[in-house]
Amino acid sequence: MQLADIVAESQDGQGLSNLARQFNLDEDQVRAAIDQLGPAVMAGVRQEAQSPDGLSGLLEALADGDHARYLDGDGTGITADGNAILGHIFGSKDVSSGVAAHAAASTGIGASIMKKMLPVIAAMVMGYLAKKMGGGASGGGLGGVLGQVLGGGSANAGSSSGGGLGDILGQVLGGGSASAGSSSGGGLGDILGQVLGGGSAGAGSSSGGGLGDILGQVLGGSQRSATTPAGGGLSDILNGIFGKDAAPEIRQKAMDKANSQLGGLLGAGTEAGNDGDQLLRSVREALARR
To answer: Are 11 and 71 in contact (CB under 8 A)?
Structure first.
C-alpha cells in the first residue's frame, strides 16, 4: 500500500482532505506531494537504520514514543516533531530544502508549501512505522517493536505467553524459544547473558550471571526480576543487541533481520523506493559540489 493510501485511511478516512485544507490544496495535489516526499523520507529512514546507532535510536523512538498519533491525531505538535525527525534522517536543513525543491518542480506545487508539508509527511512516516510495529501508546512497546522488526512475534516484553521478549530474542539471536522462566538452555537469561556479557546462567539460577543479575546490570539496579519494567534501560537493551559491545555475530544477525523487515515496510527495492534513494542521493551530491 502506498503512503498516500495509508494517509487517506487515517483520521477516520479524512487524512487527505484534512491535509488539503491545511495547505490549501486539493486532494490530488496532496497525493502528488506525498508521492514525491514520502519515498525520500522513507529512504532517509532506511539509510539511518544502516548503522547500529541509527537503528537502535529508531527502534527506541518507536518503542518509547507515541508516533501513531501522527496519523490518527489532531496534528498537535506534528510540525515541530517532524522537523526533529528530518534532522535525524537528513542531517541538515539544506537536504530538506533540496528534497522540497525537487518535489515542487515535479508537482508544480510551490516550494514554500512543500517545505511546510515535508515535516508533516516525515511524522506520518514514523506514525506508519509505529502502527506496523506495535510501538508507543498503541501497545506493544519494546516487545512489540522487536517482535515485528526482528520477526519474533508481537507480545509485550513482560508477557508470559509465547512471543514475549524471551521468545523474540531467542529466535532472533539463536537462543531458541524458551521462556524467561525456563530452566533449559536458550532461555532469556542465557540469551541476554550472551548478548550483554552477563554469562549464560539460566533465568532461575542463583549463581552469578542469571537473569536477575543481567537485568540488574542492564536496567541500572541489582537483582531485578524478569517482570521489572524496563524504564530507562531500553537504550541499554537495544545497545546490547546492536551496539559495539554486542557479540559481532549477534549484532550482524540482528542488523540483517531488522534491515530486511524495515526495508519491506519502507519500500526498499520498489520503484518508489528506488526513486526516493535516487532523489536523496542527487540532493546530497549537489550540496557536496557547492
So the answer is: yes
